[in-house]
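[Q] Does anyone have a clean structure-token version of this?
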Amino acid sequence: MRGNSIKHAVADQIRRGGIALALLTGAGVFLGAASARAAEGPVVIKTRVYVDVYQTWHAWVPAAKKFQDNATAWMPKLRFTVRGPIPSGSQISVDFTKPDGSLWWSLDCTTNEITADQWSKITTPQPSSTADEKKYSTGAGLFGFKIRLKNELSGINNVLFSGKYKVSKVSNFNGTPLTKNQFDYSVDHDWELPIGYLFDNTDRVSSHFAAAMWFKGEQVSPDFGAYLFYKGKEIGSTKNMGTFGTTDEEINTIHHDAGDPAWKLWEMEWFLVAPKPIDPDSPNEKVFYLSKNPGDYEIKVLRKGKLARSAKFSVGDDGKIVDPGIDAANNVNEYRMILPVKVLGTLDGPWNNLAWKTDALYGNPLKGFTVP
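[A] Here you go.
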């Protein structure tokens, strides 16, 4: 596993923009989860691909001689993480396609050479010349993309990952003629809601258990509390010696107005619960160690005081979290273990509770995954 310090350093780099390179050497390994595996070439981390949109405040109307003001148009924005090695002379690019399958954009991304123990977070650029903006869309529907690795030195032109995403419109019409053609555009991520993650935040001096889950709708950190149970008894709470804080993963409309579709991945940590002692000879008596307590566990999340999520997992007699094999079956290759999550209550608003069956990972549903 990557340590806490590594994770936060990478997050800071990402927030400052551009590419972030994360060294994974020396990080702890999560109980029961597969560590990042070496590969012949770069691998796109499937669970760290996010499609969003760039948006303009004018649109090109076919056959017109100028842009139409008081209208909006969009093009796709793709964020994804690649695990190395990326050899010298490589170019990672993304082909975006229209609903009819024809090529729409082919964009080269900033590509750095990295080794097998490094991750690179990449974002597609936003072309903004007049000629490019004429290619922006005012439509909605099902669009596609392919992430490619090209290398003229070795003659490689391989597809690393491909998928499809659904775009919808959110009207900004406020009753005046000037706003009738103004929309925000949204990429549907309902399929994310039942997919959670388990991991440990470990560095040289501390370790604690963590999980992450997606939520839809308007949300702020104080609305949530996550509670960890062992054999039906509460052993940890984010309200008491823990945190419930957002990660960098968030999908919103441009305006992010109340009522607009929005999805956010929240991370929860329990400071007095750890997968195992860092020093087996000197365990902390105040910490509950999963490795010393085999059996059944459950995470319950309250949202505005209402039960909103539950997820179960087990620790085996060997002290390791029982791996359901979802990560291995889907070649996920990252430090978090996929955790099926039960979505409860109505605070997420309307959502498609069957989307995970067909739309998960942008049309690449997880093998062996079922919702509780």
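[Q] Thanks! Anything notable?
[A] Residues 110 and 122 are 7 Å apart (CA to CA).
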